[in-house]
């Protein structure tokens, strides 16, 4: 007998999204004005507040159960958070991150002192989001702890060995998790591109060229994440988003989840995964056979955020059926494969197309999980 499809009352929801949204021109202009000294930080914040309030209402209007602030106060999905950790600073590097056919702005982070989490501005960012969500679930998105090591530089005079660095990194994130919870957060997402890079032989070679062993790094990252989320409150949902790069509708890595599936699905103590699955670069659903926890949700990123054309609904439903061969349908959800603006530049589609994509996700989910 087929198991009945059940509604979900807690995150991740049947129709969900990764978090970042295209920055409206009003926000882009205000950020430029602030950078040039034409307006104050308070004036910039008022513009951001107004636009965040607007897009929260839009998310609710199209039927999403979880809402984000679109990451409107950030330039990057990861650096803005990381450089506000104690002991970390951002700086303009010699070159940006290389994507296929393009490169990001030149910026990165480095660890210059002992890590800690004390007076982080994103706690206040979350509190504002929470204040305008009404009865909807406010989701906070932050980079996984892995990203500080994967993208940052570490002063060896501060941390001479991996053990002390990863110990402090886990402790710092554990404090972050608690701080967001105390601020009212019940849905926290860790964004982590490193796992997709472990799936790519080309990227694994680049990791080895840095003098690092991919298998050892995977174990270090998994251990650190588990230490960071240990002892979290029972009513806090923590998910992880994994993708192969997203900048101006381009990408970095290719490769299916097979090399990391067992570590992710059986080794990480989190509640769900947002997985990129919008192209053949992500491989098939076979790695989902390692999902052996009944409480683990898999959010299939079958709808692309990289272009505006809407996918055929029946094609998406067929792919959900394919995934359900490996994971119970009640453990599956649907989302875009990534955010729409991992950096403030955004992907190559319009805001109207963005909302149409998200509405598409809601409508398909309503059909599948009736």
TrEMBL record:
GO terms of biological process kind: methylation
EC number: 2.1.1.14
One Pfam family, short name: Meth_synt_2
Top-level taxon of origin: Bacteria
Leader peptide range in chain numbering: none
Enzyme class: transferase
SUPFAM superfamilies: UROD/MetE-like
Limits of the Cobalamin-independent methionine synthase MetE C-terminal/archaeal domain: 18-366
UniProt keyword list: Methyltransferase, Transferase
One example GO MF annotation: 5-methyltetrahydropteroyltriglutamate-homocysteine S-methyltransferase activity
Record-linked PANTHER family: METHIONINE SYNTHASE (PTHR43844)
Protein name: 5-methyltetrahydropteroyltriglutamate--homocysteine S-methyltransferase
Source organism per UniProt: Alicyclobacillus dauci
